[in-house]
Amino acid sequence: MAFRRRTKSYPLFSQEFVIHNHADIGFCLVLCVLIGLMFEVTAKTAFLFILPQYNVSVPTADGETVHYHYGPKDLVTVLFYIFITIILHAVVQEYILDKISKRLHLSKVKHSKFNESGQLVVFHLSSVIWCFYVVVTEGYLTNPRSLWEDYPHVYLPFQVKFFYLCQLAYWLHALPELYFQKVRKEEIPRQLQYICLYLVHIAGAYLFNLSRLGLVLLLLQYSTEFLFHTARLCYFADENNEKLFNAWAAAFAVTRLFILTLAVLAIGFGLARVENQAFDPEKGNFNTLLCRLCMLLLVCAAQAWLMWRFIHSQLRHWREHWSEQSAKRRVPAAPRLAARLIKRESGYHENGVVKAENGTSTRTKKLKSP
């Protein structure tokens, strides 16, 4: 991160230089945009990077409120917040996770997973708090019908659009972080899977004007993921602590059920009863039977895949656990030393000397020479 001490210098713009200084490079780019706000000539362009675009005044009963819709300029705003996320990622890594991992003395594999879970715990916790605040203030929890009523939801409040832009920025920043963090080749396919899965669902909810439903589903998903990564961090600190994994396993299955039920209720039944059913991309309307089936198929396939991976991992964990228990039971007891067979001579012992039955010693007496 910026202003930290360097123990080794690298050639300018070399691979190692970019890896070790990517947060500083991002900080310089962000600083250039912020400096642009100070000048009238560049202020308009700087605001294009910082603030959400496409604001529209929508008349309401109390007057007028400012709402937003999406467009190509959102890519510029997302790019700016990608650099912000890279900087925050480096701050959390250097000032929190690195200091904790040094005390734990983890192996390379566990160290990589510890960094991954540490970053995701911070992100999921902040996202859950932010998402819960948005859902409550907008009234999506108190009025579930608002998830599909008045579709298409083209005009978004500021906090809803900004939330989606930050979510897209985070998961897009995770792609170059695989290179910056030197993630092992064995871990890259697994991480690419869930990164792309989040990008597809978040971008789909944003572009198909299902932002309200997407917020509630993200709240459920992020809560479960936060519990999982917290359990993994506790496991790295104490390998005997697996209670949180049991709580996560129960929450994971319940969350899959809630997500599927809510998606079928909102897309399958709610949108099917909306009067405005037509395919009109210019107005943001995708409420047709084919589009609804594709959305449901995507959600159901993703949840089924996650559930299959969960069951597979749980079965593997149980097999390993029972194999360890059976191995402990099969360990033979330490062999006892065979008792030495002592050949006892006839008679009895007295003061360590074998006596004959008549009281005389069994030793042969030496005859004195005459």
UniProtKB/TrEMBL annotation:
**Major localization listed first in the record, in broad terms:** membrane
From which residue to which does the signal peptide run?
Answer: none
What cellular component GO annotations does this protein have? endoplasmic reticulum membrane
Q: Which residues form the TLC domain?
A: 112-321
Q: Which PROSITE patterns match?
A: TLC
Gene Ontology terms describing biological process:
protein insertion into ER membrane; SRP-dependent cotranslational protein targeting to membrane, translocation
| Pfam families for the chain | TRAM_LAG1_CLN8
Tell me which SMART domains the record gives: TLC (SM00724)
Membrane topology (UniProt)? Multi-pass membrane protein
Per the record's keyword annotation, is Transmembrane helix included, yes or no? yes
**Which cell locations does it reside in?**
Membrane
Which sequence ranges are marked TM in the entry?
Answer: 78-97, 118-142, 162-180, 192-209, 247-269, 289-311
What domain of life? Eukaryota
Provide this UniProt record's keywords sorted from A to Z: Membrane, Protein transport, Translocation, Transmembrane, Transmembrane helix, Transport
Family to which this protein belongs: Belongs to the TRAM family.
What's the protein here called?
A: Translocating chain-associated membrane protein
